[in-house]
Amino acid sequence: MSIGAGGPVLSVWGSSGADVYAIHVQVGGNEIIHYDGNDWQPSLTVNVVSYEAGLWGSSESDIFAVGLSPDSILHYDGNSWRGEYSGTTSLLSDVWGSSAENVYAVGLGGTIVHYDGDEWSSVPSGTNKDLTSIGGSDADNIRAVGRDGTVVLYGIGGWSPEDIGTTDHLTGVWSSSASDVFITGSYLNGTVYHYNGAEWSPVYYAQPLFDAVWGTSPTDVFVVGSGGFIAHYGEND
Question: In the CATH scheme, what architecture does the domain 49-233 have?
Answer without folding.
Answer: 7 Propeller (2.130)
